Amino acid sequence: MRKILIIITIFYSGIVSAQSGIQLQELECEMLKNPLGIDVITPRLSWKIKTEESQVMQKAYHILVSSSPEKLAKDNADLWDSGKINSDESINITYQGKELDSKDQAYWKVKVWTNKGETEWSKTNHWSMGVLTYAEWKSTRWIGYNQLFPGDSVGQFSKLSARYVRKKLKLKKPIKEAKIYLMGMGLYELYINGDQIGDQVLAPVPTDYTKNVKYNVFDVTKELSEGDNVIGVILGNGRYFAMRQEYKPYKIKNFGFPKMAMQLIVKYEDGSSETIKTDESWKFTVNGPIRANNEYDGETYDARMEIPDWNTVGFDDSDWKNLMWVQEPGGFYEGQMTPNMKINDTVMPIGIEPREDGYILDMGQNMVGWLQIKVKGKRGDTITMKFAESLKEDGSLYTANLRDARVTDRYILKGDNTETWEPKFVYHGFRFVKISGLISKPKIEDFIGKVVYDDMETVGCFESSNVTMNQIFKNAFWGIRGNYKGMPIDCPQRNERQPWLGDRTTGAYGESFLFDNQTLYSKWLDDIKYSQTLDGGIPDVAPAFWRYYGDGVTWQGTYITVADMLYRQYGDLSGIRNHYPYMKKWVKYMEDNYLKNDLMTKDKYGDWCVPPESLEIIRAQDPELLTDGDVLSSAFYYYLLNLMEKFAGLIDADENDITYYQNLSEKVKTAFNEKYLDQSKLVYANNTVTANVLPLAFGMVPKEHEQAVFENMTHEIEVNKDSHISTGVVGTQFLMRTLTKFGRADLAYTLASNKTYPSWGYMAENGATTIWELWNGNTADPEMNSQNHVMLLGDLMIWYYEDMAGIKSDPEHPGFKKILMQPNFNAGLDYVNASYNSSYGEIKSHWKKNGKKLNWEVTIPPNTSAKICVPASKSSKVKINKQNLENLADNISVENDQLVFELMPGDYSIKTN
Length: 913
Hints:
Elements: E1 4-11, E2 16-22, E3 44-51, E4 58-66, H1 69-73, E5 80-81, E6 85-86, E7 93-94, E8 105-114, E9 117-118, E10 125-128, E11 143-144, E12 163-171, E13 175-185, E14 187-192, E15 195-196, E16 212-219, E17 227-236, H2 238-241, E18 259-268, E19 273-277, E20 283-285, E21 290-294, E22 298-302, E23 321-322, E24 324-325, E25 332-335, E26 341-347, E27 351-355, E28 358-375, E29 382-388, E30 390-391, E31 397-398, E32 408-412, E33 419-421, E34 428-436, E35 447-454, E36 460-464, H3 467-482, H4 507-511, H5 518-531, H6 558-570, H7 574-594, E37 595-596, E38 599-600, H8 629-650, H9 655-676, E39 677-678, E40 683-684, H10 689-698, H11 706-720, H12 729-732, H13 735-741, H14 745-753, H15 760-765, H16 796-805, E41 808-809, E42 818-821, E43 831-838, E44 841-850, E45 853-860, E46 865-870, E47 878-880, E48 883-884, H17 885-888, E49 890-895, E50 898-903, E51 906-912
Parallel strand pairs: 16-25, 22-32, 42-46
Antiparallel strand pairs: 1-2, 1-3, 3-7, 4-5, 4-6, 4-8, 8-9, 8-10, 11-18, 11-24, 12-17, 12-20, 13-16, 13-18, 14-15, 14-17, 18-19, 20-23, 21-22, 26-35, 27-28, 28-33, 28-34, 28-35, 29-32, 29-34, 30-31, 36-43, 37-38, 39-40, 41-42, 43-44, 44-45, 45-51, 46-50, 47-48, 47-51, 49-50
């Protein structure tokens, strides 16, 4: 019997939740995510086919969904029986069964028919519904204590002790099932009878709490028992309290003191149930060991104040205070559909050097998270850890670029033998740590760096023959994951850490090749929607923790480009469908307020971070280097109008919408060319690379002038810019792909592999292990330079995968249902080895050149196909798996001196001569 493995996955409005497997001869199951608390009634179901067979394509599927595992085992699909559906679709299948109510359970399985045969039923998978209506929360009170205690303070450097909360309860019957629904603002840790629940950290994900509040759901059946029990919660400050509380209120939003709301729903074996809710009987103390916890300034922990067994049944809490009913945050309650953060990796230091006042620890890598320490000392000794990305010439910490973030953790010893500690409610961006207060020489193994970011799968790897490009990829990998904090932030180290839209306009697309960021960006679209003003404006930062509403296009347009990325990379149309009305509202808002003579006249940031004329200055001042803001905004507005036209077609919007976008975009294009295209020189505006690359990338250049404009742009790069980058954040988003599209992949390769200023390689050559904020961050007032930003990556990672590895989703068949594999073998690389784990399975592309010979190993996952392009003009020059091309390939043709053909799923060794 053939072996076919099916991996089944649940999507909730595009949110990956769970996975399990089936093999015809041997069953196995692996749960990857917690599918609890889903607050949409039509989840989407997906599965992957894994097999050693080649050319496996799905022909039909059959889904069963039941209200209990027992019913499902008997094929009693009381919720939904899809019947046999003749379809090759295996991702984003919408649940069409019985309408699900709050807290309902659903168990499901699937079988598929392929051209190689029928599979068995998959193992059982499961999801549960969340709290679907606000009414079900109404009787659950928010509890907290809106007071400062001795040692607390409010201001620029706010300081607030953690709240330790507990509730005793007695469960009088044998328990069948128990779930906790928890909202803990700003951050929480949950305990049952002394055991911590879950491995999440810094939970929940941040939102604008006046707009929406996320709840997490935990199955605690195994942790509770008949009789006495205790629920314990530590409430930290997070974004809720610690964002410079009441400091610059005109700019920085603040929300109040930590608070929580919770329901524990217990179902007993006799069929009865009980709900325990937060009320004024819950007790708390602030006299615990966490004396301060502030995202920017650090955590202070006094081990002398530890409260042994505070979260267990036998603890005496008679001297604890009762919490009070407090005002709710104001936002609507939503099930958190994206995973929390967790410790995903560890880093061991590479060196420790003594200083007069302590030691400097070198992690060897600019990382994001915190430091675990093992120390010995006397009771009351204080170990101080201050974090930084780099050192001064004298070997001391360089902290000026952190601005007023104090980034200092303190541990006060209780005086036991060896004490091990790490913080709970902060994170730092750092490579170096100054450690003070040690009474003996430390060992390097006394310290471990904990790498913290959203719990997501690494889906891509890339290696090439160019060492510089490989280091850039590693730097991008570390920078991207370090800036995933329940939302994409700009930097993790200084007093900013904000979710700037402009950093991810194209960045989100490139990042998706490295990490499964679908849930993160689906959530971020909601953040942007919630921050939209009533008349349609979109902020520069979302959630709008900073009140910046600049009304630009290149930043705010990220709302549209991220939705397009989710569709392109994941086949996820829900982002477009759910957000289309709000995007349309913004497009009209910009037209009504800023479109003059068919040109968009509003821009705020320009082509941010263009390499300046001098290494010593931060911002370029020479007007010849700067692109006019109206050029940027008008070109980008045209690009976004075309995306909106595409969206309208995808979701069957009103035909008047399509006409509106078509007419308006044509007007903008005409006005743009009339004003900015120099008909004699055939360049745009003042001939910056950005001014030319945008109309080329967006298809705005009249066809008869495209090649001339492109050649003039490449002349500007090669001659006037010495084959180096001259674009900022906006231009770099389209530079590499446009150069390659018009036949100059070799020039793109030069930009990617340069090691001199300005370039990504220059950063690496000067010690960077992540991506800098500035091209000249080591020379232009380093106080301004974040050494861990991702905005200057532009479309580089997209270019790595799509143009160098040849792993690209066909826009007409999104989500990699059909793969376009057309590496540029002559750009300058000798080999590339890359892989990407798509929604259908792993795609691999490993090619190596030897003179005029090419060896290319390709993996195409089941239920997909690939269009393959190889540099040969005759089929006799190509062998696949040692066979003639015609034996394995379909639809063979010659296009632009390349053989083009289609391959079905499988592993292939392609050789050309």
